[in-house]
Design goal:
With 403 residues, this protein is α/β, with parallel strands linked by helices. The chain is built from 18 helices and 13 strands.
């Protein structure tokens, strides 16, 4: 097989990357790959603790697709076994355990969703229960002997919990070792992950050395903030944009991101070029670009990536019809209500848009309440809040409401 030059490959590989370590080893592996016409083994492990993939996951999945396009062997490891342990990354207490059946069911949906980004015909999918379930207790003891407690306590999560008196279960120490053993099992050349996985990826290097194998290199990609602009994108925080969300929901959720995230989403959700990002940054700075127009373009690109051009154009047209032509202001207060649905009168009261439910009923009956630019016809209407909605009471009161 003929690969592009090392220089060409490296330019692509380094796009939108935080860490590439050690880069000299990456270059050496690429050179050997070209000389021997042998693809590198590129590893990404995903723990299916929840059934949905969001566009935050897509950052690293898109990088994995680039390795596919360069001709390398891409192995997606579904961590059905490691998910039963629970990744302690970023956690202040022990995660609740999942059953192997739960993780396997979630894993099946992961593969279907990942196929929206990856080339399924060039994808090798493995479950780490294949080898981790087969280890004897002696094997686990031998694996544990290859890493020290002191090394594990270098991890910030463990250090903070230890100093704070929070319990750390012994099985949590086995998580990074188990993930590292995945690299041993498939002889990984490069492992990918988010920046929050850097510690785990580095453990993989050390464990491979301990088993007498050439250590993997590591590549980390940024963590994309959720639509709240504060926390990392997460379904549990309901600040996520799912790759299986409908075009309407995907567009609406993207339009709810704060202006401070525009360049981040342009770079890591749309994968725009550096030149375009610089141009947009300059336009926002000097006022020649309006933030809302940039946001519409980002939302259009995201919908197009997962649903196609026609769906993206339809989503833009709906936005123009519902919001732009209804004199809705740009700066609307957002409110999360924690429920999937709510009766319209209760919704008006919960958002503080009316002083009493009686006032809310009168306003609806007078035709003075709209949701997404459409008049609410009855006081018995129930509003779906699973995606952001624009609630209007009278002429001047607006709220963006969601679950």
């Amino acid at each position: 097989m003929t690969f592009p030059s090392v220089h060409e490959q490296l330019e692509i590989i380094k796009q939108h990357v935080v860490d590439l370590l050690p880069e000299d080893d990456v270059v050496r592996k690429l050179e050997r790959s070209r000389t021997t016409s042998t693809p590198l083994v590129i590893k990404l492990g995903l723990d299916p603790s929840r059934p949905d993939i969001h566009i935050g996951h897509a950052v690293v999945l898109t990088k994995l697709r680039q390795f596919q396009d360069l001709g390398h062997r891409v192995v997606l490891i579904i961590g059905d076994f490691t998910a039963t342990i629970g990744d302690p990354t970023g956690k202040s207490k022990t995660r609740p355990a999942l059953t192997l059946e739960e993780t396997r069911e979630n894993g099946r949906t992961y593969i279907e969703q990942a196929a929206k980004i990856l080339d399924a015909s060039k994808l090798e999918v493995r479950s780490n229960s294949e080898w981790l379930n087969a280890l004897t207790f002696k094997d686990v003891v031998n694996l544990s002997a290859k890493y020290t407690v002191a090394q594990l306590l270098e991890r910030d999560d463990f250090t903070k919990r230890f100093r704070g008196g929070e319990p750390i279960s012994v099985h949590e120490f086995l998580y990074p070792l188990s993930q590292a053993y995945d690299s041993v099992a498939i002889r990984a050349d490069i492992e990918l992950g988010g920046t929050d996985q850097k510690f785990n990826l580095l453990v993989g290097r050390e464990i491979m050395k301990a088993y007498g194998l050439e250590p993997q290199c590591i590549l980390t990609t940024p963590i994309l903030e959720g639509t709240d602009g504060v926390e990392k994108m997460s379904k549990s925080l309901d600040n996520y944009i799912g790759v299986t969300h409908s075009p309407r929901d995907m567009f609406g959720r993207t339009m709810s991101i704060p202006d401070t995230l525009l360049l981040r989403y342009l770079q890591y959700a749309c994968f725009a070029s550096s030149e375009e990002i610089s141009s947009v940054a300059e336009g926002l700075s000097n006022g020649t670009l309006h933030p809302r127009n940039v946001k519409v373009d980002i939302a259009r690109r995201i919908v197009k990536k997962y649903h196609g051009s026609d769906a993206a154009q339809a989503a833009v047209e709906e936005f123009e019809r519902v919001f732009v032509k209804k004199d809705i202001p740009d700066d609307i207060e957002s409110m999360s209500l924690g429920v999937d649905t709510m009766a319209i009168v209760d919704l008006l009261a919960a958002t503080g848009m009316v002083a009493t439910k009686s006032e809310g009923r009168r306003l609806v009956q007078q035709g003075g309440v709209q949701v997404d630019g459409v008049k609410v016809p009855s006081i018995d209407d129930v509003i779906d809040l699973t995606s952001p909605r624009i609630l209007r009471a009278g002429k001047l009161r607006f709220k963006r409401v969601s679950r």
